[in-house]
Amino acid sequence: MYKSFFWGLIVCLGLTTSVWSQNQERPLWNTIPGAIESNNYKEEFRLDSNGNPNAIRSVSIPTLKPFLVGNNNSKNPAVVICPGGGYSVLSHIKEGDKIAEWLNSIGISAFVLKYRLPSNDIMVDKTIAPLQDAQEAIRTLRRQAKDWNLDPEKIGIIGFSAGGHLASTASTHYNDNVYTSENISARPDFSMLIYPVISMEDGITHNGSKENLLGKTPSKALIEKYSNEKQVNKNTPPTILIHATDDHAVPVENSINYYLALKEHHVPAEMHLYEDGGHGFGLGRQGTHTQWPKACENWLREHKIIPENPVYLFSYFKGNGEDGLHLAYSKDGYIWTSLKNDTSFLTPEVGKDKLMRDPCIIKGGDGLYHMVWTVSWTDKGIGYANSKDLIHWSKQKFIPVMAHEAGTRNTWAPEVTYNDKTKDYIIYWASTIIGKFPETQSAEDAGYNHRLYYTKTTDFEIFTPTKLFYEPGFNVIDASIQKYDTDNYVMFVKDETKEPVRKNLKVGFSNNLEGPYSKVSKPITGNYWAEGPTAIKINGEWIVYFDKYIDHKYGAVRSKNLKDWTDISDKISFPEGTRHGTIFKISAEEFNSLKANIKD
């Protein structure tokens, strides 16, 4: 049985894979099968014209590089990525890391496979070495499914060019006994082949890939064996194929013939042939072929690999918050439509003024929706309730989070975030305590001088003592925190300073939900007053929505990297009179149930 050195180390230390950081390469094998030791065979990068590495040469030690989805699911789909490069190099960035990031954006954990490139110098049989690596990669994902929160029945493979040949080989030769292994299936549950080399037959193959894998004078039997269109049977996994008609390196007939073989054996298959794109277009250059990731996403949803697109909900208040909770929905994050004819879902009952301002809703680790809100302009606590369906709510509770501070003037804009590592909730808000932080005290804004405070709970019954959460050196309110990858968080806040006037939104970062958070960025909003930020990531882009409260309308900015922001206020639409709250996601099934149970 061959296991990687990494897995052996884990067992010896009694640890799990969760202790390792994201994107760290891990050796695939402890003892590499059929390996020949060679001191002269050294892995190296191929550099582009600017001196940047764009491919890897002379791979002798195969690895897996994980890109795990950051969510609370215990069973995520996963894909092994096989970069292309003619079996002579690996295009590890364009057809590796960038593909992993795209897969993460649609809810799939991804593992970039750095497979051995065929060479007689380091292999007893170079024709099977890449297949050995692909089989072991799939077995590794199934073996470690629990540690990585993977669904062992949704393990797929994607390959580009020669990597597509390897992916199709893994999809048709998964029962080949190419090394001694335990009884774990190496069959992918689905495959995605992007401008793939499929055949080794003259006139259709990519000659460089063929020679590198099979040698200069392969036998007829070997050519047929690795012409994978001839190895398809009824058990070949469902497949989607992507190719450009004008591909002059790998003829489009590779995909066509594989598709026809799949069709003949009644294997679910889909093929997209684009007019242009040439070869090696990765996620796309310019033209119709840039649509292929969306085509794959739709195919994956149709095959139940990933769920239907979520629906985005927005919890908000109107007026002063007297009538309570309002909800709106959007399918794209841009056009928002009110539910229940823009009437209240829940009337406020607790607090000095019985208001329901700034309602923040999240779905917790227990499957319930938890909501906190501002109950008054001058109270020392916040409101709380929970729900299974967003219609029927628990008895409302007043949580006196600032009752211990006699000088507290207010408790505003609470938000709640679930910590999936510690399995508890952090609630944070803005308060002014008379006499605190005199260095930023001002007579403006009625003398309010806020800082952020927090408490933690596991059950919303017992709470940790309130502590200072964030002290940025200015009057700060309206914090909203999002997890932006496995180990990191971004916090959006409002700089409430009025002298000199700021009234804008900024961001800070931390590798811990509880902080400490970094010094905030420059403003991400424009020359207007903004408050109440709420953010969500849609199709790989962050959108931050906010209340342009002086202008009585809603605004938004967008970014791919949380650093460079574009104002898209003219592209969004919210119900008239909307005041700020929180954006969150629900499944299409949950949304349909919500709509069916609303009584207008």
Summarize model confidence as the mean pLDDT: 94
Contiguous uncertain segments of 5+ residues: 1-20
Distance between the termini: 63 Å
Strand order of the largest sheet: 1-4-7-5-8-9-10-11
Classify the secondary structure makeup into a structural class.
alpha+beta
Strand content: 25-35%
The description of the largest β-sheet is: 8 strands, mixed
Number of strands: 30
Shape from CA axes?
elongated
Backbone CA Rg = 28 Å
Q: Give the helix proportion (percent range).
A: 10-25%
**Number of helical segments with 4 or more residues:** 9
What brief labels describe this structure?
30% strand; 8-stranded mixed β-sheet; elongated; single chain; 16% helix; 600 residues
What is the secondary structure topology, with strand pairs?
Blueprint: H1 5-13, E1 26-27, E2 44-47, E3 53-57, E4 63-67, E5 76-82, E6 89-90, H2 93-105, E7 109-114, H3 129-143, E8 150-160, H4 162-172, E9 190-194, H5 207-214, H6 220-225, E10 239-244, H7 253-264, E11 269-274, H8 292-302, E12 311-317, E13 326-330, E14 337-338, E15 357-363, E16 369-374, E17 382-387, E18 397-399, E19 412-419, E20 424-431, E21 451-457, E22 467-470, E23 476-485, E24 488-495, E25 504-510, E26 531-538, E27 541-548, E28 553-559, E29 566-567, E30 579-586, H9 588-597
Parallel strand pairs: 5-7, 5-8, 8-9, 9-10, 10-11
Antiparallel strand pairs: 1-4, 2-3, 3-6, 4-7, 12-13, 12-30, 13-14, 15-16, 16-17, 17-18, 19-20, 20-21, 21-22, 23-24, 24-25, 26-27, 27-28, 28-29
Helix pairs in contact: 3-4
